[in-house]
Amino acid sequence: MAEKNKKKLNIKPDTALLIVFFLIVAGYVIFHIYSAVNVELETVTAVKSTVYETVETKALIIRDEQLINEQADELTVACVADGEKVKANGNIAMRFSSTESAANYSKLKNLHNQLDQYIELQNRNSATVTDVRTLDRDTLNEVNSYIRNAEYGSISSLGEYNAKINEKLIKYQMLIGEKIDFSAVTKELQEQINGINASSAEPTGYITTEKSGVFSSYVDGLETAFDYSRVSELTVEELNGYIEKAQSGENGKGSFGKLINSYEWYMCCVVDTADIGEIENGDVLEVAVKDTDAVFDCTVVSGADISLGQEKAVLVLRSSQMDSTIASMRYEDIEIRTASYTGFRLPTSSIHINEKGDKCVYALVSGKAVERQSNIIYSTKDFVVFYDETPNGNSIRYYDQIITKGKELHDGKDYSG
């Protein structure tokens, strides 16, 4: 039997690489053709939103405050709560003869406070705890106050904030309908109270204050480092010097608290003059403290009157709001809101040009693309804000499903198939 000649197919390496390259290119082209033909429909819901033009900077907080010093021979404990107003010649602190006596007083006070809180909560029901946003904000403020006081060694206030945080957590439990056995908790607290000798928790005397004001246990040693009376005269160099002091890590050793003598306090910040060209002295602006829910209405006291050629300015903002959280602020990241725009905030990918050359968006209504038009009042590279006008023939409506991704969009395009 005759042997058949066998031919071997030899492919050069260069040819093999070229084939692989063309296969990859062909796959890439096919993928993009498929993607272009089979575009998934994506939408966002049109809801009203407020956006801000802002100046972001750091602010030094300056208050009219004085330190309350501890007595060298006795232990001193505050007898007013953080943020509580104190009358002139009123008691602000107690003296104790020993650490044990002061500890018994603090323990007894905390136990009574907890007992009162649980009794109050026991008399409530979940229907009275409905404002989730307020509860979220209050919880965040208490946690921030706890962290600040722990960081700066204000140990005497930690028990108070711990109790407040615990109360907020119980309210969350009540809100979701979880049943809590308050009787067991109140019984245990009462037993702890009965186990402490009340006579061992009596103070030997009191410290009074000559002036009225707001008490705060938060101290950082900078209470008298800044001249409150001339904040409106600060230069950039002076403020930068103040800021260096604020970052120096002083801790107010030897003081158990402070008295804030005025509800008016100031945020002082160095800003670029180009960022505040539209601001005038006397304007009232919203100022948000970053990483908190705190937003203050502040009056521009000085710094907005810019000289020709001036590049930097000290902007001084005044507020009259006061609480324990504000009393613990010193050097904060802030956002000065110079303008606000309220309307329908939509991504730029939703914007199209119609046949008339006008900007528009398309809403998905009953499976069809319907053209919507409204005036743009603010825009960035990422989003636009449309004016929230009275609905007419083709204006954007609340809860419209605005198309952000779709193929061959035009008015009347059917996507129901």
Question: Mind sketching the topology for me?
Answer:
Blueprint: H1 13-37, E1 42-45, E2 48-62, E3 65-69, E4 75-78, E5 85-86, E6 91-96, H2 99-122, H3 132-151, H4 158-175, H5 182-194, E7 205-208, E8 213-216, H6 236-246, E9 255-260, E10 265-272, E11 284-289, E12 295-302, E13 312-319, H7 324-327, E14 331-347, E15 352-353, E16 359-365, E17 368-372, E18 376-379, E19 383-387, E20 401-405
Antiparallel strand pairs: 1-20, 2-10, 2-14, 3-9, 4-6, 5-8, 6-7, 8-9, 10-13, 11-12, 11-14, 12-13, 14-19, 15-16, 16-17, 18-19
Helix pairs in contact: 2-4, 2-5, 3-4
Sheet with most strands: strand arrangement: 2-10-13-12-11-14
Strand count, sense and closure of the main sheet?
6 strands, antiparallel, barrel
Which secondary-structure class do the elements indicate? alpha+beta
Order of helices and strands: HEEEEEEHHHHEEHEEEEEHEEEEEEE
- pLDDT below 50 for ≥5 consecutive residues: which ranges? none
Mean pLDDT reading:
82
Distance between the termini: 67 Å
Report the oligomer: single chain
- Bin the helical content: 25-40%
- How many whole angstroms does the radius of gyration measure? 33 Å
Number of alpha- plus pi-helical segments: 7
The count of strands amounts to 20
Strand content: 25-35%
Please, could you describe this protein's structure?
The protein is α+β, with helices and mostly antiparallel strands and 417 residues long. Strand 18 (376-379) and strand 19 form a beta hairpin. Helices cover 28% and strands 30% of the residues. Helix 3 (132-151) runs antiparallel to helix 4. A six-stranded antiparallel beta barrel has the order 2-10-13-12-11-14. Strands 3-9-8-5 form a four-stranded antiparallel sheet, with no helix packed on it. A three-stranded antiparallel sheet has the order 4-6-7.
